[in-house]
Amino acid sequence: MKNTMKTPIRIVLGSLGVIVVAAIAAAGYLIYPGTPGSAASLVFKGYVPLRSDGLLSVLDYLTVNDDTLFVTGESTGIVSRVPIHTNSLPTLADAVQLPGEPAAHGVVIDPSSHLAFVTRSEANTVDIFDPVKMLAIKRIPVADDPDAIFYDEFDKLVYVASGDSHLATLIDPSTQTTIATIPLGGAPEYAAFDTSTRLLYQNLHDTSTVVAIDIAKRSVVQGWQLQGCEAPTGMAIDESHRRLFIGCGANAVLAVFDLGGHRVVATVPIGKAPDSVAFDPGLHRIYTTGKSGVLVVIQQDERDKYRVLDTVHLHYGAHTLTLDPKTHALYVGYAGLVVNPRVAVFTPRP
Fold first, then answer.
1. What is the separation, in whole angstroms, between the first and last Cα of the chain?
2. What is the pTM (predicted TM-score) of this model?
3. Which of 108, 138, 250, 318 could be joined to 231 by an S-S link, Cβ 3.0–4.6 Å?
4. What pLDDT was estimated at residue 34?
């Protein structure tokens, strides 16, 4: 009888031990990012650590402006400024922070005033700050859920995409005031500006469409369905070949959209839940990453011919990236659980 009772107890204890070991392994995986997987097209240079006082720190947008990288914290509201173009990787001491409410997203710099604008979706504002002193200057209310933000060099306006309200807000940086809103007909994600036509191409996540916006006319002038692309997210533009590169969040492909024919001409399978897309016109490379933490490097061989060079496993949640057009360096943001968040730095392999 005693031996009969001991057997189920051993089974239960053994099962609990397996569960504990699995939980420890899972926690270790989520907490410690390790080293990215090997790649034939990229060289991993190391990590740039960022400060965070929270248990969980989720990064959102990365923006390169001249010799500076700006990184926003979605969960903390912190905007970090990191110097780049140095002989060595920046350290924790090099990162200067601007605190704020949670859900900080896009950052853009006005080239005339040299002031910076950051979207904050929980406050429903665009905050103006001095990017040199990292001091807040002014808060501008905008439509609900502001996220992506861009500067229109022709109209000299700041464009803000608000997802929940299906609106774009235009801000005049010279007066630091809102001057107009543009109904978009759907929930905007990312956009790309076409300097040759002076149109802003905006993808709409909930309708799986892309629309062309004439900012001068304050209106959407045309829109197209993205066949084979579900729930578009990140976007980049190849102006010389007249192509948009769009990450498709629901079906994990990169869609290549012909701006002349107004149709998707190619799709390339990429990592699950893609979010960010960047294009290097010098190397003819497209980079994508998403919440699955998979970085995909795609080579543009011809206008409509693409091949995957690398699929690099990073870390779960490493969903945001940006490219430095001067050096071709690639920066990918990592969330921090218990440990500090960080930015992985890659350079192209010759």
1. 72
2. 0.91
3. 250
4. 83
